[in-house]
Amino acid sequence: MNSNSIIKDALNLSPSERLYLIELLSQSLSEPDREIDKYWKEEVERRFEAYRAGEIKSIPYDKNLKK
Fold it and tell me: Using an 8 Å Cβ cutoff, are 23 and 14 in contact?
């Protein structure tokens, strides 16, 4: 099976099946960056601890909306 026949077959799929195929192909192109994931995990934990300690305040959702 070559790429042209794969594309032709893919175009005959239902919209939901095409979307699923797009998602799978997109995910296959980008492997998670473990260093970035580690950084964000540490940052989230740091911010949460600061919130719990009263060092930072939360902003209510409705106050955070742009008008």
Answer: no
